[in-house]
Amino acid sequence: MADSASNDAFVEFDRVQKSYDGETLVVKDLNLSLPRGEFLTMLGPSGSGKTTCLMMLAGFETATHGDIRLGGTSINNIPPHKRGIGMVFQNYALFPHMTIAENLSFPLEVRKMGKSVREEKIKRALDMVEMGAFGGRRPAQLSGGQQQRIALARALVFEPELVLMDEPLGALDKQLREKMQFEITNLAHNLGITTVYVTHDQTEALTMSDRVAVFDDGRIQQLDPPDTLYENPQNSFVAQFIGENNTLEGVVKEINNGIAIVELDDGELIDCKPVHESVKPGARTRVSIRPERVEYNKDRIQEGAHTLKAEVKEFIYMGDIFRTRLSVAGNDEFVIKTRNAPDVERLTPGQQIEIGWLPDDCRALDA
Amino acid sequence: MTDATSQSGPVLAADGTPLKKSLARALRLQKTRALMLIAPLLVFVMVSFIFPIAKMLFKSVENEIVVETLPLTVAELQNWNAESGALPDEALYAAFVADMVVAIDAKRHTRLGTRLNYEHTGMSSLFRKSGRKIKKLDPAADGPFKEKLIDIDKKWGDVTTWAVIKTHSVKITNGYFLNAIDMQRTPEGAQAQPEDKRILIKLFQRTLFMSLMITVSCILLGYPVAWLLANLPARTANILMILVLLPFWTSLLVRTSAWKVMLQQQGVINEVLVWIGLVADDARLVMINNQFGTIVAMTHILLPFMILPMYSVMQTIQPTYLRAAKSMGATNWTAFWRVYFPLSVPGIGAGSILVFILAIGYYITPEIVGGTKGVFISNRIAYHISSSLNWGLAAALGTILLGVVLLLYWCYDKIVGIDNVKLG
Fold first, then answer.
1. Of A115, A118, B55, B197, whose CB neighbour count within 10 A is largest?
2. The domain A9-236 belongs to what CATH superfamily?
3. ipTM above threshold 0.85
4. B4: pLDDT strictly greater than 60
5. What sequence ranges are listed for the domain ABC transmembrane type-1 (chain B) (predicted)?
6. CATH architecture label of B200-420
């Protein structure tokens, strides 16, 4: 995580801190480096410091302590307009008094490019986002999705090596958002630009990114590719924040051969994989299990799985999956998801069943 | 397709009545209620605003007094040609005496004298003096009157006197408007006033020029303040806002008088400058009773009207626009000039219209600090309303002023577009 010495780092945060009021730190000791061409997402709840980090990188906020480097040189004292970083804003920030073509022409004009060069670049950028016919329109005449594309084209038209995006899809409806997620990722990879993307939507982060940095409380809680992040969360915050998650609380009894035995609060003993460094005999722990890794059909429970009794509280038919709420070891909010298949039994509330999961899917994290 | 839309002919409601009629009935109650709510204000505005203004506008062309007072004379004057240079014949003099005796009984002749005096000096005293003597004549028995009238006052033997009466005997006249633009109605048609009487055009030009200067100074002084108001943190902005609004809570006369204290030759500014030694004691600056004084005082008084619309427009300009501009490589200045300023223009437009229209009709401040060189056309209008009592001319001046404002408003709409004017 803190390999700030690596030579291929294009963007680097080195022990960066930020405080607005001189009393509390919004960003605490941030170390982050990303290589050229990477699509990195900063994910976190509001107030976690992710947007502040983006603004420091863009130059709109100054770091209280530490160094931010771009291509090996410190940019702490370089004003935003000299950093050459493209940026897409949450509300697009398209200039309402200019046409689309004028909007795109703006970054080229301030770079004193000739008219013919400008026109060519504008055309190429508009074609890239499939908006070639809209150059003469005003932003207010476009739909949200179209404005989004233009904002993207405008951030890319001057061919920056680094593009920052601050929750750019927040204002779009679900369908359009999914389409744009795909388009943005494709575009970023095809052009080979480095992208730092800020969002609080974990699905967006997982589907788009090469790596995701999960922010909370001014720190990066975990920085990993999406699959690692989802399957191997390093602490309970990440486990809770990424995807759906069941937690069972208890005390670690012993650790043997990489298996921790945890005594749940109702006395039940289960086998878990110790993950967090705080998991030691005698320590309290939170056990995390993904809903889709729990089975209740006897045939499907794999060998070596840990089984437990449960009572069905609620059974929701959701089309592709069944979502069942259970009472397990004193936790009434234990949720499992089962794919809708012909051989899967449909449960009724009050039914007593046996559920099972593999010890590897059951992760002992910090309390 | 539902049945209702596929049918030809009017769409029917469920009970068979046409839908339009049914809708109108449903809305009638709402409309009546709305009308009742605005009725008191509507009546008030009609009685106290629309009606007096319409009446005043009509006064600028209305001229029935001559025909009403001298009906027989006016009829006879049609047969007389002023350009011939010959005096009218006896019939006219007889008609005039007959008219005058009736008018004197009703004490209307002096009012006619005053009216004609606006056009030709001396008419007022002529009518008043002659009136006393004509009163003793009997229109049926004492003829012929031509010699007698010329005996009473030799001006009755002057062609000009009769020419003036004939020229202004029309019921609807353009005379006041011609006067308002430094011309006069003569038997030979519209002609320019003598050189020494031409002041009104100059006064119009000065009014427009000074209003423009005041508007420009308000823009220059108000823009930075509005920007600060819109961009400071809320607490500080509120304090600043109170400072901006403070003048609203102080009497207009007090503020104007304060400027008098500040600007006069023995005033605060001059005393300080003399004390520092920047200005010699015998060469104190003349800053009041001239255009400078009026512009300074009125800029101060009208400034809030510029700041408030600017502020409310600037408040709607999102800071991300500037950030976006900078992220694309624009310097602070370019970002301001290419992005922020164009977005704030609607505020400048709204403020400018407000200040300019208020300034062009301003009266009290120029009256107090304007002296003779710094007064506006409105002061002239006030003079004709309350001192010279030439309401026709005052109405004509007012109408022209209204026309100029509407014309400028129209030009503004053509150039900037009234849609671009926002108050927030």
1. A118
2. P-loop containing nucleotide triphosphate hydrolases (3.40.50.300)
3. no
4. no
5. 204-412
6. Orthogonal Bundle (1.10)
